[in-house]
Structures are given as structure tokens and as C-alpha cells.
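Researcher: Next sequence.
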Amino acid sequence: MANTGTLTYIDPFDNILITYDGKSFGNRFDKKSFIGSRLSYSDVILHSFKVPESISEDELKTNVEIKMYDDAGLDLQKKYKIAYIKKELDFEESILIEAFAVEVDRISDSLYPVFNKTKHIDFLALPFLSFTTLYKNKIIEEKNDLFVYIDEHESFLSIYKDGNYLSTKSLINLDEIVKKLEVAGVDITIEALKEHLFTKGLDSSTYERGETILFNELESIFASMLTKINDIVVYNRSVFGFEKVDRIFLGMQNGRLKGAREFVKKFGMDEVEVRDFNIFKNKEDGNFFEKIVTSYIYDKYETKDFRHNLTIFEKEPAFYKKESGKVLLTVFLIISISSAFVALVWYKNNELQKQKDTLQQQYNAMKKTENRYKKKISIVNKELKEVLDKKADMDKRVENIKFSITQLENLRDTKKSYSRFILDVNRLLKRYSLSTTNITLTGKDSMSVEIIAEYRKRDNIAKFMEDLMKSGFIGITTDEIKSDKDIYISTIEIKK
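Model: Next structure:
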């Protein structure tokens, strides 16, 4: 993870390392910081075309891809990283698109010096866009500016209108200048040329008599360069509608071009301000352009604006953030969960088996106990049946005894009742000197008495019946009183 607010810039051409925290530059490399570098202008393939204002972003991306392959000549067999910038056009209902492409294999070789220090590049900058940092951080005012950078293997022009990037074009580089000088008969190395441009440049007063050819050739080369620049400005003025150039920033990697200011004015740009790249508020020693690029990348890092980042060498995300890592972690998680589930199932099955075995043992023991108790219960039930049978027999006998007792009591009561009944009737018979020939009990409370009385005692029969009624007997009836040889016979029904 990058340290917040810290940037390390590694130049791919001169082994320069610059650190920046938004305030000051340093050279202490922090591998954990945000890493930036830049492309060589010569590695960038540029192509511009117009599209309707109404085009969607998805359609535009597709259109850029097609245009870069069909019109800019990208090789279908090679891999490229592509980005683009949209530019508003005055008086037109269309947008100008400037697209940039870099060949992956080519920039991998160009950036080899960077990979000696780091394994990744978080931001890979387009050099001609870097000057936006000067306006963003208010290092210079927003005007119509030309930035001309001259180096060994790359030279280019960047045009800005009111602080906004308009376009870029390549210019003659130092290596090409050396070759032109060689054709003119001037033998000079690139390092010697750099020093010569820095100390003498285009100032004719600094040249000696034997350097006339060198001066004349350099003057001609830079005059051609300014002519090309002027033609580019005229074209951009017609396209983007700016009136004039306010400033030209012209410089090399480690310094200005001697005599550039006077040379530009002699070329006819009297009102144009000419400056070099040493323009930070705190004047820095050397590496001026690299520090501009460093500040630009820092701005992009701070604002999280990676639209024009052409790197393909980002720091690999943590394993768990990669798609492959996510897949593997998901698979691992699924396997782990499955394994845990299998282990849990095995454990549960093992526990259940143990419980089953324990329960089976308990069941077997209980089964034995049950069988033992069943035998005991069977014996008890048999004994109980015998007891119950005996009890039933005894109950039956008791019931029989109870019934017999009841019968005896009833019989006793009946006999007692009969006896009393008979005694009461007999007492009255004696009172009236009446005799009976037959007493028949017709029920518990009734009897039939056949009475015999002498003639002279015949009235006693009536008195006997009256006395019976007085004694509480009811239902006293007689069939008739018969006379037989001075004897009266009467059958009387008596009810109690």
C-alpha cells in the first residue's frame, strides 16, 4: 500500500530519482510510496479525429479503438495501451478527439532502467500533458503558452490555451541535430552538443572564428524548428481560436538554451515572453522537466485521476483482491467449509454412533430387565389371578352368606310377624270364646280364619270382628255365617 501523500518519480532515461510530497523535492527512495515514471515522446502514437457531441462514452471508447487500428495503423498482432482526450471546438457541433497509444513490448524495453529500482509503476505519464501542473498549482498564470522540450532522443512542442492542453507535435531532437551537423562537416558528440547549447547556444557573440559553421548550422536548424512551431501555432489558432502566443518555455533537461530569448525575438516574435523550465517558486538545481512531470503525477495521485495513465505495470493487488485470488479464495473457502462440514458430519455421526451404542446397551439392559420383570409380573399376575379367583369365590360365598342371612332375617321377621299376627287374633278368639277349625295365612299381612260358635254365643262372632277392627286390623270380611246343628260357622278374612 502506497504511503499517503508521498510520490517517487523514476526517470527512464537518465537514472534520475525524485521524491515529492506536494511541497518539496527529495531523492530518498521509499518503495512503499506511489511510483511514477513517464513515456518517451517517440514511443507515443498520436491520432486525432472528430466525433459528434452526442456520442456516448461507451461508443467513444469503441470508436477510439477502431480509429487507432484502422487510421493510425496499429498492428493487430501487437498489444497496446490506449487513452484519449476530448477537446471542445468553437463554432462546431463536434468534439476533437486526440488519442494516444503505446506498444506494450516497446515501452517495456524503454522502461527497463525503471524496473532496476522497482517492480511496478503506478502512473506512467504522457510528457506533453505534464505542464498542466504549472497552472493547477498556480506556478504560472493561465495564458496562451508554448512548451518546447529538447533532449537526446525526444523533442516536442505542447500548446496550451488559457491553461488547457490543446495539442502536441514532435520536433527535431539532439541525436538528429548531431547527424545534421555531421552531414555539414561538424563532428560533435551529443554530450558535447548539450554543453555547447547550454554555454553558447544561439548567442553569436560567444562563438569563435573556427565555430562559424557550427553556429550557422545550429541557427539554421533552430530557425527551421521555429518555422515548424509557427506553422503548428497557425493551424491550432484556426482550429481552437486563440489570438496570439503569450509565452514560450524552451529548455533542455538540465538548463536553458543560451541565446534563445534573443533568437526568438529576431525571428519575429517580439511580444512573446521567452522563459526556461526552471519556474518553480523555490528555484531548483537541474532536472527541471523531470520535476514538472513529478508534480503532474503527484496531482493525478492526489485527485485520483487516472484517465491518462498509460501504465500496464501497476502494483499487483493483494492476493485476496485479484480475480484469480478471489476465485482461489472462494474455492479454498468452499473446500474449507466443505471439509469442515464433512468433519462436522463425521464428528456428529461418530457422536451419534456412540450415543446409539450407549442407547443400544441401555436398551439391551432394559430389555433384560423388562424380560425379568415380565416374568415376575407373569408370576404375580398368576398369583393375583389365583387370589382374585379365591377372592371371587370368597365374595360369592360371602354374598351367599349375606343372602342366607338376609333370608333368615326375613324369615325371622316373617315368622315373628306371623307369630304376632296369630297371637293377636288368637287372643281375641279366646276373649270371645270362639273356636277355630282352620287358620290359613294367605300372605304376610293377611289370613283366613274359620270360626265355630255355639248358638248362644253367635253374637260373639260380630263382637270378635268389631274388636279386630278396633285393634287395627283392616279388611275384615266374612263370607257368611252358616248354622249347622246349633253351631254357627263363619270364615273371616283378616288383613293387617
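Model: Residues 323-431 form the longest helix (109 residues). The chain has four domains: 1-139+285-316, 140-279, 319-420, 432-495.
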